[in-house]
Design goal:
- It is a single chain.
- Strand 1 and strand 2 form a beta hairpin.
- About 0% of the residues lie in helices and about 45% in strands.
- It has a four-stranded antiparallel β-sheet with strand order 1-2-3-4, with no helix packed on it.
- The chain is mainly β.
């Protein structure tokens, strides 16, 4: 599974796509590499609250498990 391209959605309804780098059960974190933010893609429910996708590619992002929707 490590090295696989995955998609996750944060509690703010932002979808991220990246390469799975680490899942740390002790620290309850999920780390992705080469990450793209796809924005809320209509999940915000209010057009003025929508967050657009970002063209930047983030080298590394670590998410707390509590910040990710299951």
């Amino acid at each position: 599974m490590y090295g696989s391209r995955i998609s996750l959605i944060s509690r703010r309804n932002i979808r991220y796509i990246g390469t799975l780098n680490d899942v740390n059960e002790a620290e309850k974190t999920i780390s992705l590499e080469h990450v793209c933010s796809m924005g809320t893609e209509g999940r915000a429910g209010d057009p003025q609250s929508e967050i657009p996708p970002c063209d930047d590619i983030y080298e590394y992002i670590q998410f707390r498990a509590t910040d990710v929707l299951s």
